[in-house]
Amino acid sequence: MQSDAARLRLGSTSIAWRDLARVFAIGAGKASARMALALEQILGERLTGGCVVVKDGYGAPTARVDILEAGHPYPDERGQRAVARILHTVSGTTERDLVVACISGGGSALTPAPPDGITLGELQIVTGLLLRSGATINQMNTVRKHLSVFHGGRLAEAVAPARLATLILSDVVGNPLDVIASGPTVPDPSTFAAALAVLDSYGLRAQVPAPVRVRLEAGLAGRLPETPKPGDPRFARVTNLIVADNARAGGAAVAAAQAEGFTASFVTSYAQGEAREIARLVAGTALDIRRNGRPLPSPGVAIFGGETTVTVRGRGKGGRNQELALAAALVLEGVDGVAVFALATDGSDGPTDAAGAIVDGGTVARGRTAGLDAAQALRANDAYPFLAATGDLVRTGPTATNVNDLYFALAW
């Protein structure tokens, strides 16, 4: 986004200031407060006001945009109130107004907007079932979009006829606009049938609350309207722009590693699958660099980006990056000069205060000294206490961004 005395430029879109009456900022996601702060710095007094909703602790010192906090990853009443506030902000806009939406990862959970007939509590149950099932973010958000009056393009409906420009930080592999924060300003290609297929693939249709099942089945039968689809005229004045993503973070990590004397390469931003399986790939790459000088000479670091999943079978505590790190530690056990670092770029890995962990060939032994069994902890999905005991957790606090995860295979 760029602004001068005459025009505002949003990617390839250029708008004359004389054609705009007011500019509002709204948004949702872990990075949206910092995005709103940047908007204030760019637009100054031209920004009329607005509000964004963030996870607790992810605020920013904005002057014109109100920062609201809500629950994540489980939606709460604060998030429901935040949705009402956002919709109220845009309710009186006209064709001469511009609404700038700051959207980033976390936006789905932070903006629960259950339709009539479904309660917030029922939405929370669905969220928990999906989080524990091993469903991908694409699958989770397919369901969420069909249990919302905000996501799946519904926010764009509410903003019309005003202009809408959405600035997006992508936390989804491949940057699919309709999936990031459940695509509140994007046409939705998914369907009620697809949402039910997700539940069926994980055996959840019978487990979700009855009103949820009834709604999705009514939509499948055509008794409820679908989310707005590509080609809908209400998107004619909508611009959606990716402003940062995992590949950009990976490139910055390569530059930082090279500055420290490592050879470095960003391998992919498409690392997906069960965390413990991806751990074998990342840890194996570290061993290959150490022993064979491939795919990089030592000292080297191969950097992977993406988002793994965890099928929760135990009752432990952790996040997908901690699970990946613990699984990698078992592969690296007893080997000197290697390490794996798994990082959530938002600084929050699952329901914990850790961003991830960095493990090496001595991690398993340090846990054993503390009376802990690494393999048992992995079976119980209980990485956090193990990695806390070994001193391998990494705590960054909120980073004010959210562009998926990064996994580092290091050898020296």
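[next item in queue]
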Amino acid sequence: MSRTSEFGEDILNKTREYIDKCVDEWFTQVKTEGKDSTTVDNKLKVRLPSIEGLAFYLCIARVTVYDWEKRYPEFAALVNQIRNIQADRLINNGLSGDYNSTIAKVILTKHGYVDKTETEHTISELSNEERKRLSKLLK
């Protein structure tokens, strides 16, 4: 991938253009076609904006996106917009089932969402040996 060395208004315009193009599209796909009937599926062509997608669109390395994000506030705002759009669409379309919920869950971890289970242990659940060790620690 070539590296664009010059940051300028054209990069900001192309970034806005990339964001505008990242729109999911529904389409109909013929599943089976017969003499008397045809069955179709409605499919979703997902165009989720991403840092990687932006880097590809701009023909730059992903690290360049991160570098420019630190150096140029207007670019940083657009990159933040990409992250916000991505999180919003992952949540909403993951919940509706339009996106694969497992993939949505994995990507949402990059946005700080975690799937965790808290377990509370009581002393009655401990084995005799664990109770003895705990008792010694508490003395």
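[queue empty]
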